[in-house]
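User: Hey, quick favor. My workstation is busy. Could you predict this chain's structure for me?
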Amino acid sequence: MNYSEKSTALVAVALGRYLVYDRISFEQAFFLLLLAPEFYLPCGCWVASSMPAWPGSPLPTASLRFWKHLYRKPVPGRRR
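Assistant: No problem, here it is.
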């Protein structure tokens, strides 16, 4: 389950509660539910790009290079 699916599920639960207590019409809730994946897509892309990639992952990221640089073995006689 990816980020936008989880976010859409949370929006669906919230909209369901609004529908049960008659605070929103079905048409408005349906429209918002259709827009939810597109709304959360940039957030999911940002989260995916900021997480370190695991070995064998198809997306080597800048954060992976950062962690490799951070945990590299020190060279004798060289200051960090």
